[in-house]
Write a sequence for this structure.
């Protein structure tokens, strides 16, 4: 699926891949930070 998408080429598909990559990485990063914050509460 990914190979076919890349084979098409074009600036549009490249931008979509970059956007989705940033969205996925950002979502994973936020999830990890949220999980650590809940796992180790800072409240005294």
């Amino acid at each position: 699926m990914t190979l076919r998408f890349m084979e098409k080429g074009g600036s549009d598909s490249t931008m979509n891949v970059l956007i989705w990559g940033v969205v996925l990485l950002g979502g994973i990063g936020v999830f990890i930070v949220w999980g650590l914050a809940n796992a180790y509460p800072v409240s005294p």
In short: The two ends are 50 Å apart (CA to CA). The first helix runs from residue 2 to 8. The chain has a mean pLDDT of 80.
